[in-house]
């Protein structure tokens, strides 16, 4: 089922959300987090090594579509629900303890994170991936992705892709705060992938004229200045795409673009890689069931 996300103007209304219907108390869990346990061992031996994609030969669509899909999860906010959060806000917000429990579930289940470069090499040339690969992606630049998500992922040796909306970098608001340039660079320096999520979340299907410069070129330049790395991956606002826009992405050097749960384009599947939103209403068990069912 396709899920939609309000544009930036409406984000303040959405950003009052969280996780499953009832989260576990955090006091004892936080105490546990400060203690090293068996799950904290970084799973580097199971993680795929960094990939140089410069010499990867792009495969034909039939070959790409024939490869088993890698589960890819899409997250937005990770914070506790507020009394003002509506159903959509809660759907897009995973509560803190639930998120920690979800990551523990993935680790206990033997999942190992991969990054877009590794997925690109696998889809095109069949490069090997670690056992039970999964990709974690985080949209919209929200600060809790740095303060809550990053430390949690480090416990399990996990890496992620963060898709940045540049209009919000460093902004503070009544309902939500956003990452600074320094925090984005740190995530990049620590081995995570930084990708583009446009300037201000405008619907990709409606781009004309100057939109390509405003929504793609300027954000790319800014993110490359921040990270010192080339931007090669893109996530569509609302998960909405049209194939007419694929050439615009390609000529700007984007190797893959990430959508949501729609069917992939039969002629250009790299430009509409599927993800599912990890709902705030899902327990770790429900999340696992949806991973298995969706991919």
TrEMBL record:
Cellular component aspect of the GO annotation: extracellular region
The keyword Signal is assigned to this record: yes
Region (Disordered): 25-48
Chief site of localization: secreted
GO molecular function: hydrolase activity, acting on carbon-nitrogen (but not peptide) bonds
Gene Ontology BP terms: carbohydrate metabolic process
Domain NodB homology: 132-295
Taxonomy, superkingdom: Bacteria
Polar residues bias spans: 25-47
Keywords, alphabetical: Signal
Compartments, record wording: Secreted
Xref: InterPro entries: Glyco_hydro/deAcase_b/a-brl, NODB_dom, Polysacch_Deacetylase
Protein name per its UniProtKB record: Polysaccharide deacetylase
